[in-house]
Amino acid sequence: MTHHEQPSDRLDTLIRSVLPADRAAMSAARERQGQLTKPPGALGLLEDLSVRLAGVFGTPRPHPAGSAVIVAAGDHGVVAEGVSAFPPEVTPAMVANFLAVTPAGPGGAAVNAIARTVGTRVYVADVGVNADLPDHPALVQAKVRRGTRNLRAESALTRDEVTRAVLAGADLARVAVQDGADLIVPGEMGIGNTTPAAAVTARMLGLDARDVTGRGTGVDDATLTHKAGVVTDALARGASSAQDPLGVMADLGGLELAFMLGVMLQAAALRRAVVLDGFVEGSAALVGVALAPNLADYLFPAGVCAERGHAAQLAHLQLTPMFDLGLRLGEGTGGVLAVPLLLSAAATLRDMQTFAEAGVPGSETQDRS
C-alpha cells in the first residue's frame, strides 16, 4: 500500500486485478487433451481440471509446483448463543497446536499432518482470536479485533474491520506466492464459524436459514434447530443485502472469513489456483465471486463437505468437487488433500505424449474426433 492509498482504495484495486483465465490456453489445452494417448474422456474430471489449470497459468502445459495452506484463526461473538459443541477456548488452543513442536515435525493438527504428507507449506495467522496469543516465529500477527460481535443481535463487524481483514489475507497470500506456492488453500479455525458461514450463504443465495445451517462441530438435533433460529434472527435484522457483498461480510461474517476472501482475491490476481476446502471457505467464495466474477475461474473445490449448504454453494458457483469423504473439520484439510489431484491433472496434460508423439496407432482416429 502506498503512503497515500486508503485501505478501501487498495481493496478496490485488488478486486479489479482479478482478470479472466486465459481462454486461448484453455482451448489449446482442450485440443491437446483430445490427442493424448488415452481414450477421450478416460481421465474423467482430471481432464476438466487440467484445462482449467491451463487457463489459470496461461499455458496449455501448466506446471504448478509449490502449494500452501493459509490457516486463519478468529473467534465469534455468536458462540454466546450456544451454537457450537465446543467452547471458544478451543480456538487459541488449536492455534497453539498448529504451531506445536511434535516428533513428526511442526504442528500437531490434522492440517499439519496432511500438509507434511503432500509437501504443502502451512501458514498460520491470528486475525481475530479472542485471546492474547504468545509471540511465535511461525504465527502471523494480523489481529483486527478480539472476535466478532454477536451477529444475532448486531452486525458482526464494521466495513473497515472487514477491509483490514481482507487486506491482511491478501498480504499473506502474496508472501505464500513469493515463497513458491502455485496452489493456495485458504483454511480456517474458529469455534462457531459455521454459523456466520450459514448466515452469509443464506443471504448471498437468498435461501432459508434451515437450508444452509448444519451441525458444524457435531451438535445434536435440538442445538441444530436453535442454531438455525439464531441464523434466522440474524437475517431478520435486515442489515445487509446480497447486492452489497462486503456489507454482507460485515453484517453476518467473520474475521477469518474476510481474511480468506483476501487470500482468494490476491491469489487469483497473481494467477494462482485457489483450492476450496469446505463450507466456511465456500461462504467467503460467494462474497468473492460477487465482488470479482472472474474469481470463479481460479476456484477449485476439493470435496463436498458434510455441512448442509455446501452443495448449494458449489451449485451457485458452478463448480464440481473432486471427492466426497464426509469431511467437516475445516483447517483447510480437504483442500490440502486435493493438492496431489491438481498436480496430477496438470502433469497428465503436460507430460503425457500425444498419439503422434508416441507413434501409437490411433492418432488418425483422434484427429477426426
UniProtKB/TrEMBL annotation:
One of its GO terms (molecular function) is nicotinate-nucleotide-dimethylbenzimidazole phosphoribosyltransferase activity. GO terms for biological process: cobalamin biosynthetic process. The active site is at residue 331. It catalyses: 5,6-dimethylbenzimidazole + nicotinate beta-D-ribonucleotide = alpha-ribazole 5'-phosphate + nicotinate + H(+). It is an enzyme of class 2 (transferase). Pathway: Nucleoside biosynthesis; alpha-ribazole biosynthesis; alpha-ribazole from 5,6-dimethylbenzimidazole: step 1/2. Keywords: Cobalamin biosynthesis, Glycosyltransferase, Transferase. CDD domains: DMB-PRT_CobT (cd02439). Its EC number is 2.4.2.21. Pfam families: DBI_PRT (PF02277). Catalyzes the synthesis of alpha-ribazole-5'-phosphate from nicotinate mononucleotide (NAMN) and 5,6-dimethylbenzimidazole (DMB). Belongs to the CobT family. NCBIfam families: cobT_DBIPRT (TIGR03160), PRK00105.1 (NF000996). This is Nicotinate-nucleotide--dimethylbenzimidazole phosphoribosyltransferase. The lineage of its organism: Bacteria, Thermotogati, Deinococcota, Deinococci, Deinococcales.
